[in-house]
Amino acid sequence: VSGEKAVLLISCLDQRGIIARVSNHLFRNGCNIITSDQHTDFEDGHFFWRIFLDSQSLSLAQLRAELDKSMPELLPGLGLKWQLHDASQRDRLVLMVSKLPHCMMDLLSRHHENELDADIVGVVSNHPDLAPLVHPFKVPFTVVSITKDTKAKAEAHLLAHLTELRADTLVLARYMQILSGDFLAKWGKPVVNIHHSFLPAFAGARPYKQAHDRGVKLIGATAHYVTEELDAGPIIAQATTAVTHRDTVADLARKGKDLEVMVLAHAVRAHLRKQVLVHHNRTIVFE
Amino acid sequence: VSGEKAVLLISCLDQRGIIARVSNHLFRNGCNIITSDQHTDFEDGHFFWRIFLDSQSLSLAQLRAELDKSMPELLPGLGLKWQLHDASQRDRLVLMVSKLPHCMMDLLSRHHENELDADIVGVVSNHPDLAPLVHPFKVPFTVVSITKDTKAKAEAHLLAHLTELRADTLVLARYMQILSGDFLAKWGKPVVNIHHSFLPAFAGARPYKQAHDRGVKLIGATAHYVTEELDAGPIIAQATTAVTHRDTVADLARKGKDLEVMVLAHAVRAHLRKQVLVHHNRTIVFE
Amino acid sequence: VSGEKAVLLISCLDQRGIIARVSNHLFRNGCNIITSDQHTDFEDGHFFWRIFLDSQSLSLAQLRAELDKSMPELLPGLGLKWQLHDASQRDRLVLMVSKLPHCMMDLLSRHHENELDADIVGVVSNHPDLAPLVHPFKVPFTVVSITKDTKAKAEAHLLAHLTELRADTLVLARYMQILSGDFLAKWGKPVVNIHHSFLPAFAGARPYKQAHDRGVKLIGATAHYVTEELDAGPIIAQATTAVTHRDTVADLARKGKDLEVMVLAHAVRAHLRKQVLVHHNRTIVFE
Amino acid sequence: VSGEKAVLLISCLDQRGIIARVSNHLFRNGCNIITSDQHTDFEDGHFFWRIFLDSQSLSLAQLRAELDKSMPELLPGLGLKWQLHDASQRDRLVLMVSKLPHCMMDLLSRHHENELDADIVGVVSNHPDLAPLVHPFKVPFTVVSITKDTKAKAEAHLLAHLTELRADTLVLARYMQILSGDFLAKWGKPVVNIHHSFLPAFAGARPYKQAHDRGVKLIGATAHYVTEELDAGPIIAQATTAVTHRDTVADLARKGKDLEVMVLAHAVRAHLRKQVLVHHNRTIVFE
């Protein structure tokens, strides 16, 4: 028999026997481990585990109920956190954009080719410009204008809209506004951003101008989870590419676009597959 | 308590419950799994597992005896192969070279900086040229001349020398001779070679000349296990670097040297850490 | 004054004084050299030069007339070939596709963001599937069906259509048909193709399957000019990315898509900027 | 006839006709331009030119005398700076090291294989440890101890030693001391340093620790000219490599070593070939 597929994420203090206890327990409940990745942070003795499993004869609801009961007994006193994600249930993604289409177009195209394990349920922008490009993908496009004076109201509006869309994850695909700490707290779910530099270098505004002024020989892009402190959240993915003295600020921006597209897609994909765990402002990415 | 460290490699047909059974068994014998990597080839249903463990209260000899007895019972009927490598026992490596020193110098330097989990117990060359460079590393340098007519005799001599050195692995670090199938069969242990192209392109002689003639925009290097068929053994590591129309064949050779050094070091390191399993002329590399 | 911008391409046998004679001549005619790139192939003594110039007081028509007269006198007996490209005149590009949209979407998006120095004047496919995706870009989409039996007729139809569109360059953006030598001869203008392997490895059909079977640790993509011999034309751009034993053939195809997109965009951009010269089935790419 | 080879570097304000005037002048003096690279910084209108030439019938002394006379007349009022480097005259390089051998070993090995256009005339260290490794390369090894209290005296000693060695360029190959502004001013010649991060990120001490704490997904290395401000001089070359959550600080240091070696070798090579010009704390690197 082949049952339901799920991802089980476990995070706790490290101890001898965790793998044996949990894998044995899953086996007794009829589950089959398809892939398994674990990591121990030896600096602070934390243990992280991602299991992709087939529940076989059990339904996922039954498995969840079983784990709710048994996990605290299996791994007591270790500060255990665990999550069971139904692999057949696709995340509901909302893209936030401004005027630059490249990251948005790439994610919509991947979605259209069924490459993402998610449904893009909306695109929200503070400008109407990109609406026509979204049209053939049959994804609703909404304008939520935002100015310095209207920020609180606009963010309330945005929050209501996201709730309506039943969104699970926000992706800031070159969205040019900063979400307030208040918004982030109320939203309470993951926000993935793409920053156009190899953070922590060139945080803040105009990173390509900063890179040009410093005369670096490579530029980068960084996808990270958004936290209240700007450009300082846990990094999910980064990449760099070579540049030369010939490249003007405009050339850096053009070359950087390709990095932004690839790095954001990489991070979104890992996030959707539940391959990313956050620990102390760093990420564990099981790929 | 902290016991002895070891790498346990398991390869068998895939089946539900393997992870549970083995990890449970190790736990009951007091072992602690430090890291664990597994892979299933879904095309032919083969399962591969690398466990880095601490034997805790058991000695490795006791653990080996225990596994000898229990493993066939734990995983019956699956064509099981397993190996237990004592992590404290360093492989004995022999480098084979001709006249080009770059790969040899790199491996000797890494060895000197204690970066390799191995002892380089000898350098064998068909030319005397590199002897002075080996001298400060205090590794014996031996010349085994080889010509078309003397090949059989030279290989017999080489084999005797390797036996004397109690070598575990041969590394062909730009060795310009082809080892015969007869030699490989008698030697019976791993031979790692570096080929100066991104195989399977430009197999055979003068790959940089071939690359230049074809006008490729990148050149590569490939580290692989040596099999009787030339340049066709299982690939362990590869890398490429960009080249342009400005690069002559000599420039390709110069740029390629850096690739050869890095790719060979990468492959040797993975091999020594018992991270490489061979399956159907392909490798699984657990890194 | 600022006049008209143009690219002057020169190819001839190498000789002392070419740079002096031509740059002096351009200066006397009031032209300003903005950038200049040259290359000498020392193997066969050929010289290649790309000059990006501002014609200042002259019109390009006047400059062209002047060069028509003077160039044969300036560089006699050297097998001279030269071209003057008006930088303000955008190439007319036609994309040819089948069912895979990724390369097409990327080029249409770049076109839409005004990143390409060209007008995409048509998309031609042997299948209707991609029509809706092309719609928002306001580029005509045409289906030219092709089967084994109708190939000659279909190619005649295609040729007529391209003539109607006044196309300058064809880009095969994962077009799954092979254009006949007869068609190529009649068309007589550049055709850029993307092949999904690091040629010359894995030429022909199903390169990702071939790559998987050989167990390579990196996959690649190659953009090249199409010649009558399949996958053997002059290479413009290549790139590779790392893969592991975990990657199935489907994973290779997914990872490879990103390479194909980037490598094809790179090659098309260089081609459109008149940065590519062909010599002996190799390219000189002035970037 | 084939004469002497030289590199002519020109830097001045941009103006129409510079290329024509200089190339024509060189031609009239019988010189043959072998390769030519130029760059205009359009932000501040500066022009940079590197010419690799064959002086043919003239000796370089004659050519130098000729240019001394004619260059100010050819390019008047443009703030002209020019240099003529005899390509046959090899720079005299001194390596400065502490206890880490990898960059030093790499440069000595390249020197030994005749890959560098320079003579390494000395290795200076503040520790005696690396002396045995230098021995087979027949390069003098000198210890110049340095402590907080003896810095001024040690630097005076160092300066005297470098003068004795007639050194042209210093290469800090993981030298763990900071050279004072006073020393740099007195020395007055190029100093190339390798920093183990992708500057400007993680400037200062313990960059691998900083990188690990921030949780970056790539680490880098930067070769730059040393200026009085620490880690802020003009960047010559940079590279990065991927890291994961598995990498400890020690792993980053090990992976980073390979980057440091490659980036420093790249920068030293470009410097020695007179391919690097400095402008406004940025470099133009003609490769």
Description:
Chain A has 287 residues and is of the alpha/beta class. The first copy, chain A, has helices at 18-28, 60-74, 102-112, 131-134, 151-164, 181-187, 207-214, 249-272; strands at 5-13, 32-41, 46-54, 81-86, 91-97, 118-125, 141-143, 169-172, 191-195, 218-225, 235-242, 276-279, 282-285. In chain A, strand 5 (91-97), helix 3 and strand 6 form a beta-alpha-beta unit. In chain A, helix 3 packs parallel to helix 8 and helix 7 (207-214) packs across helix 8. The two termini of chain A are 27 Å apart. Chains in contact: A-B, A-C, A-D, B-C, B-D, C-D. Chains A and B meet through helix 1 and strand 2 of A and helix 1 and strand 2 of B.
Order of neighbouring strands in the sheet with most strands of chain A: 7-6-5-8-9-10-11
Rg measurement of chain A, Å: 21 Å
> What is the number of E strands of chain A?
13
- How far apart, in Å, are the first and last alpha carbons of chain A? 27 Å
Biggest interface, chains and residues, is: A-D, 32 and 31 residues
Bulk shape of chain A: globular
**What is the structural class of chain A?**
alpha/beta
Strand-residue proportion of chain A: 25-35%
Number of helix segments of chain A? 8
Oligomer: homotetramer
For the report, how would you describe the main beta sheet of chain A?
Answer: 7 strands, mixed
Mean pLDDT of chain A: 96
Q: Segments of chain A where pLDDT lies below 50 for 5+ residues? A: none
Tell me the helix content of chain A: 25-40%
Order of helices and strands of chain A: EHEEHEEHEHEHEHEHEEHEE
